[in-house]
């Protein structure tokens, strides 16, 4: 087995920055081209981070926390805040502090430190503690084989949950069924219509929960779980629909054994009726009613696109909407629609009253509000109508897309206010609506896994990883908030990643916004040990700040992350880092030495993805090319108009190659990918650490042969050899590629002969390395084993530099391969880059 080095580049702070030395002025920062940004993994574990059992000391002016960069006057018992220079007195219990008796937070090596804030999960009513909750939302509109796969994995997940984790179950198809797990006498289900959005208050009333529940709850005092546990009625919602995993495992397994696929008939040539939006609304309402503010996850298992909703009368609804917006009356004669069907449609779908005056209908003003919150589907039921593509979205030809995104945006706001997470596990050959649901998953910090089938290892192994404990646990945490304190003259533009702005204003908020901005604090309903956020900074443009490094040559940034760990404890992690101000106008060498190429490439990829989604008509390739040319012109060494004289500093040597691969990646070239796949790729890019995100942009390639030990190979078609095995890691897939000769020997069974043990070991080595990669990664990547000239060799060829194509096939080495493409090679790309960078 090969030894792949794994150096920890993030260190104890888990922070990597594009520039580790900052220019002094806004003008100089703009000349750097690559934005000032930091990538932080807020709760990444590290063995050297101390945990303190006492509360931190905060500055009385800027509320930043005392850290190892604070100056201390031991005689006067005063510490000076490095952010605002405020003098703060130590409290009495710090009276013994001295140069030889320092608290842990003042030790220079502890730039990151963690404080225990206590257990914040005790239920307000005082009867029981809830550490975490999981509501599983299961799609029943799928074929029997897929349904058995997903039920089997569901049962396994229940067995892996902590015993005290609360569990709820919602199934959906044409309608939504909420299962009352606490009713032990028989299987009891509450049914909601799939055509109408349900508010939290309506969910509470229908389920009989809390004050909103007007009906008496059968079973509350007759053999039900409530009576057995001695619970009061105000908590009956929790104990009826959410039970500890240890108490409801048998009930859930029995229920799943009896559960069938959706029984509503599906006409030939149509899709099944699937009300995904309503199901998620009901699950969110259930959690909001039972456990507001408690760490909880909605785990959605979806097998197809949402089709249930008012799409069948879209024309009538658009007419009604238009008239209400313009405060007009609908004239039936001019619309050409008969009165009776329109009346029936409005009554049936919107459930509102209206008055008719002759041949004119007067529509009440509340109709538009009803429409705005309808759970619009992403596709019609007719199978001849294809699910929206990127071209449809570009041409605004996807009639359901914007309404669906608006619906999930409102669902995201509800979940964030409740402190709950939406996880999405989508498995289907068709699209399921990940692109529409992206806003809800990302803003709540949810997980997303996209696979072809519920029986595929990508889903099965990923789903298992979510609930596993021990070394390979994801470390799922809840109710996180991130606050950032900066030195004067540093402004925060925003964050790209799984979080939501808390709209906390302050002097550090920049005028320009990138991602989730206009704030110095962000909410992370769900986060885990691999969660990563990218923070974008700017410098103040005021005259007073023209030289921010004059008073202090160091700048300071502090990241405060409060979160609830899997055991239910509230923790506060404080990371304080310092960087140097440099005068890049006088001497750019210091600035260059602080450049992180890998981080810069990932930040540019995340920024490009954001612009492609937010800016209409954005040309990503042209934007990346222009920025790369500016970087090379700014930091390259050359004579004007002489491309042969161009050289690039070693600190920038790999950056053009990263940009070349980014231009060709699935994040920029969306052709041949569905909107769902693109949304999935971009969500993963935004939440993974720099090392993993860099692999998504520029995959790693390892070569195995008889002649040498396993070694890294160029990501180039020239690396293919008939007597080689290649291992490609592109993050979402791991490819083991056998050269032509190796494949022939394997097919002849040489590896099974005693005299060819070396060959058997050669075949085994990439398999073991591939399993190491798969074992440590979430979502679990797809494993592809292929041979040269085989159909699945495309998984490798699509990622390689096309240095040999059909245009220059005569130049290829024996046993190598060619790529049938018109894309330029890396060499041609560099030649054009050099020519443009040195232009006057």
Automatic annotation (TrEMBL):
Domain Sec23/Sec24 trunk, residue spans: 132-313, 378-467
Please verify whether the record's keywords include Membrane: yes
What residues does the Sec23/Sec24 helical domain cover?
A: 596-693
Q: Which GO terms describe its cellular component?
A: COPII vesicle coat; endoplasmic reticulum exit site; endoplasmic reticulum membrane
Location(s) in or outside the cell: Cytoplasmic vesicle, COPII-coated vesicle membrane; Endoplasmic reticulum membrane
Q: Which UniProt keywords apply?
A: Cytoplasm, Cytoplasmic vesicle, Endoplasmic reticulum, ER-Golgi transport, Membrane, Metal-binding, Protein transport, Transport, Zinc
One GO BP:
COPII-coated vesicle cargo loading
List, for all copies, the residue spans of the domain called Gelsolin-like: 708-796
Question: InterPro entries, alphabetically?
Answer: ADF-H/Gelsolin-like_dom_sf, Beta-sandwich_Sec23_24, Gelsolin-like_dom, Gelsolin-like_dom_sf, Sec23, Sec23/24_helical_dom, Sec23/24_helical_dom_sf, Sec23/24_trunk_dom
- Superkingdom is Eukaryota
Topology with regard to the membrane?
Answer: Peripheral membrane protein
Classification via Gene3D superfamilies? beta-sandwich domain of Sec23/24, Sec23/Sec24 helical domain, Severin, von Willebrand factor, type A domain, Zn-finger domain of Sec23/24
| Residues covered by the Zinc finger Sec23/Sec24-type domain | 56-94
The terms under GO molecular function for this entry are: GTPase activator activity; zinc ion binding
Pfam families given in the database record: Gelsolin (PF00626), Sec23_BS (PF08033), Sec23_helical (PF04815), Sec23_trunk (PF04811), zf-Sec23_Sec24 (PF04810)
Q: Which residues form the Sec23/Sec24 beta-sandwich domain?
A: 478-582
Q: What is its main location?
A: membrane
- Function of this protein? Component of the coat protein complex II (COPII) which promotes the formation of transport vesicles from the endoplasmic reticulum (ER). The coat has two main functions, the physical deformation of the endoplasmic reticulum membrane into vesicles and the selection of cargo molecules.
Return the PANTHER family for the record.
PROTEIN TRANSPORT PROTEIN SEC23
Query: What's this protein's family per the entry?
Result: Belongs to the SEC23/SEC24 family. SEC23 subfamily.
Q: What is this protein called?
A: Protein transport protein SEC23
Q: Which organism is it from?
A: Salix brachista
């Amino acid at each position: 087995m090969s030894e792949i080095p794994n150096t920890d580049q993030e260190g104890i702070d888990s922070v990597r920055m594009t520039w580790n030395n900052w220019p002094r002025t806004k003008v100089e920062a703009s000349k750097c081209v690559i934005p000032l940004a930091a990538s932080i993994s807020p709760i990444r574990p590290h063995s050297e981070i101390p945990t303190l059992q006492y509360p931190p000391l905060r500055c009385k002016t800027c509320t930043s926390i005392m850290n190892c960069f604070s100056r201390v006057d031991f005689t006067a018992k005063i510490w000076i805040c490095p952010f605002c220079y405020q003098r703060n007195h130590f409290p009495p219990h710090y009276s013994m502090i001295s140069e030889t008796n320092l608290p842990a937070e003042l030790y220079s090596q502890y730039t990151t430190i963690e404080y225990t804030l206590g257990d914040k999960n005790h239920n307000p009513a005082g009867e029981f503690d809830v550490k975490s909750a999981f509501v599983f939302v299961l799609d029943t509109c799928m074929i029997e084989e897929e349904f058995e796969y997903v039920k089997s994995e569901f049962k396994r997940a229940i067995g892996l949950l902590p015993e005290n984790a609360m569990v709820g179950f919602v199934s959906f198809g044409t309608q939504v069924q909420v299962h009352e797990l606490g009713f032990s006498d028989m299987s009891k289900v509450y049914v909601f219509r799939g055509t109408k959005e349900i508010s939290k208050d309506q969910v509470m009333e229908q389920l009989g929960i809390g004050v909103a529940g007007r009906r008496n709850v059968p079973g509350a005092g007759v053999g039900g779980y409530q009576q057995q546990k001695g619970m009061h009625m105000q908590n009956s919602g929790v104990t009826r629909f959410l039970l500890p995993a240890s108490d409801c495992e048998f009930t859930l397994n029995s229920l799943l054994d009896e559960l069938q696929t959706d029984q509503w008939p599906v006409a030939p040539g149509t899709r099944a009726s699937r009300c995904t939006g309503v199901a998620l609304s009901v699950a969110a309402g259930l959690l909001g009613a039972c456990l507001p503010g408690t760490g909880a996850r909605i785990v959605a298992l979806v097998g197809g696109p949402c089709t249930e909703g008012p799409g069948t009368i879209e024309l009538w609804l658009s007419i009604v909407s238009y008239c209400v917006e313009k405060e007009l009356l609908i004239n039936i004669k001019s619309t050409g629609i008969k009165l009776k069907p329109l009346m029936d449609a409005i009554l049936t779908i919107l459930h509102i009253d209206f008055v008719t005056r002759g041949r004119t209908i007067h529509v009440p003003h509340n109709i538009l509000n009803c429409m705005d919150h309808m759970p619009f589907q992403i596709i019609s039921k007719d199978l001849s109508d294809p699910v929206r593509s990127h071209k449809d979205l570009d041409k605004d030809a996807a009639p359901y897309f914007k309404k669906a995104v608006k619906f999930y945006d409102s669902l995201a706001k509800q979940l964030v206010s409740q402190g709950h997470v939406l996880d999405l596990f989508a498995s289907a050959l068709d699209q399921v609506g990940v692109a529409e649901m992206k806003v809800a998953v990302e803003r709540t910090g949810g997980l997303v896994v996209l696979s072809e089938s519920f029986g595929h290892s990508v889903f099965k192994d990923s789903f298992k990883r979510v609930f596993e404990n021990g070394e390979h646990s994801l470390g799922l945490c809840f109710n996180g908030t991130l606050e950032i304190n900066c030195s004067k003259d540093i402004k925060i533009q925003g964050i790209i990643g799984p979080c939501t702005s808390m709209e906390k204003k302050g002097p550090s908020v920049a005028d320009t916004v990138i991602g989730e901005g206009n704030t110095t604090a962000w909410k992370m309903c769900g986060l885990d040990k691999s969660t990563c956020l990218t923070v974008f900074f700017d410098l103040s443009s005021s005259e007073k700040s023209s030289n921010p490094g004059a008073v202090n040559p160091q700048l300071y940034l502090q990241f405060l992350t409060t979160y609830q760990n899997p055991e239910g404890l509230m923790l506060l992690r404080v990371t304080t880092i310092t960087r140097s101000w440099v005068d890049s106008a006088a001497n750019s060498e210091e600035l260059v030495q602080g450049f992180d190429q890998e981080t810069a490439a990932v930040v540019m990829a995340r920024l490009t993805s954001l612009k492609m989604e937010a800016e209409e008509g954005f040309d990503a390739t042209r934007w990346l090319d222009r920025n790369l040319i500016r970087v090379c012109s700014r930091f390259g060494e050359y004579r004007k108009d002489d491309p042969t004289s161009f050289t690039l500093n070693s600190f920038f040597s790999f950056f053009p190659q990263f940009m070349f691969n980014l231009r060709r990646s699935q994040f920029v070239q969306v052709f041949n990918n569905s909107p769902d796949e693109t949304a999935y790729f971009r969500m993963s890019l935004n939440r993974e650490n720099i090392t993993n995100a860099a692999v998504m942009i520029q995959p790693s390639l390892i070569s195995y042969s008889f002649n040498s030990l396993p070694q890294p190979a160029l990501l180039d078609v020239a690396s293919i050899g008939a007597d080689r095995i290649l291992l490609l890691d592109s993050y979402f897939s791991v490819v083991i590629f056998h050269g032509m000769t190796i494949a022939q020997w394997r097919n002849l069974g040489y590896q099974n002969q005693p005299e060819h043990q070396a060959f058997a070991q050669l075949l085994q080595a990439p398999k073991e390395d591939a399993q190491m990669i798969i074992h440590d990664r979430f979502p679990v990547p797809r494993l592809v084993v292929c041979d040269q000239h085989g159909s699945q060799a495309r998984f490798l060829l699509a990622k390689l530099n096309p240095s040999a194509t059909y245009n220059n096939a005569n130049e290829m080495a024996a046993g190598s391969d060619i790529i049938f493409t018109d894309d330029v090679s890396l060499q041609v790309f560099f030649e054009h880059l050099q020519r443009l960078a040195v232009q006057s």
